[in-house]
Amino acid sequence: MNAALSHRCSVVLVLAFVPLIMNAATGRAHAASYPLSTFDRLRGVIVYDVHEDFKGGIWLGTESGVWRWRNNGFEMVNSPTGTTAQTPVPAGWGRGALTLASDSKSNTLWIGTGSSLLALNMESLEPYPVPSDLKSVTINRLRVMPQGDVWVGTRNGLYKLHTKDKHAKAVLVPETESLNVEDFVQAGQTLWVGTDQELLEITHGKIRKHFEKEVVGRAMHLHYASDGAMWMGLRKEPGLYRWDASGVRKFGQADGLKNDEVNSIAERDNGEIWIGTERGVFRWTDGAFHCIDQDSGLTQTDVHSIAIDRDDEIWIGTFGGGVCLLRSPDVVTYGPEDGLINPFVTVMCRTANDTILAGSLQGFSFFNFETETGRASEAIDHVTAAALDREGRIWLGGECVVLCLETGEKLNLPHAVKSIAFDTLGQMFIGCAHGLFVARNDGLRKIELSDSLELAANAILVESDNSLIVGAGDGVYVGMEGHWRKLPTDSPVLSLAQSSAGDLWVGTNRSLKLISKTTLEVIENYADLGRILHSPAIRWRDLVWH
């Protein structure tokens, strides 16, 4: 199999609303600074690399960690499943996995992240020790060469691993210690190495440099084709280059390559060259490029990685769209429903200082729009709701539980938590998958919305007079217990927001409506937004973020 690897990004923005809190970026708690585009990256599955092992198993390197294909779905490799009590795989292990490679001799999966090299027994999931030289460095590329040697391209040079038993030793290739090695391939006795300065040709220890003047840019992605041509994707001066005995040719839009920001290169057994770019996949055959993009079924066209498996099927790893299997004539997309539950925004809320809390399926993040700074935490898994009480404390809702982040106080619920809100009396209203509840000093009590249905209460707003607006499974309820006015909807209400004029934005999985709070009449209706409004949103500076 030819597996080409890569790393990059994307965004989405629509309309609708809920309460108030903070940010974006999964990981353990740390201080950092992120661009605004990072805020949206929680919305999708970021697949950096797709890899087929020597047994035909499919592995994914993602922002949240390593995943493997099992039982017709993807399973995350960050739990003790399949390990001994003495060697569990720690939570979050392998986060930010940029590149993968497997070694049949030792049954090892090698994992390169933005900060370290990791090793894993593919059967027992037992983590193996790695060379100390590679424990604190960015790993750009991993490759297992035809003879079985494991090579590692890093920000600080190119290494060859000598593996014995469960221990590996890293040997630095001479004269590469100061180079940022982006990619490398082997062709016979020659090793081609792409750095951020030039392309190196290493034969029997002798180094020749190429393209120092002809091509100004980073040799990010290399592929040595079966016909003897070298394909190169460069980023600083974006372009796709092919180098053979006749010279160098650069491809662009005039050749049918509509995007020249190349992230990945792979080759099928029939000699077809497949190019992953920021705007889709391009197939080079018979001297022409053919585009595969959203019109062909790709859910996300920012393609990070392409892997061609032994059945000649093409796996496409994307930024924010999961992993796609190009099974002619169809495109099969694998996402959260297939086990890939890494960073999806499930709730957002805002504080008075314009800081946002974004809860996701793997913790929550804080983000300040003014300073563009953020931090992340995993205090609660699978965050589904968030709100501030009168004291400014953060309350998070998870699977059948509500947690106060500051005090650690917990409240158990009979159903999955969908929404949280507080009134001026300090009462906490909790929307669940099967009903609306109120928590007071005297305990938890259910509030009936309808006599005939046990409805999901997906969104809650509290008015200044402590009356409620509830987005439920069959419409919007306005009022208070026993005195409800109702606006029926054709599908469940998933999010609510209040406009500056006091009217209501109502988001369902089919539409977005602006309705009058006093008459419950529809003022504006957006019936086809091209996507489902699953997650709640926030109103900020007269814009509605979803």
What does this structure look like?
With 546 residues, the chain is mostly beta strands. Helix content is 0%, strand content 49%. A five-stranded antiparallel sheet has the order 1-27-28-29-30, with no helix packed on it. The protein has a five-stranded antiparallel sheet with strand order 2-34-33-32-31, with no helix packed on it. A hairpin with a 2-residue loop joins strand 5 and strand 6. It is elongated, with a radius of gyration of 26 Å. The N terminus and C terminus are likely disordered.
Indicate the proportion of strand residues: over 45%
**Biggest beta sheet attributes:** 5 strands, antiparallel
What sort of overall outline do the alpha carbons produce when their principal axes are compared? elongated
Q: Can you count the helices?
A: 0
Q: Structural class from helices and strands?
A: mainly beta
Mean pLDDT: 75
Task: Pick out the low-confidence regions.
Answer: 1-43, 79-88, 529-546
Please state the oligomeric state of the protein chains shown: single chain
Question: First CA to last CA: what distance?
Answer: 40 Å
Cα-based radius of gyration, to the nearest Å: 26 Å
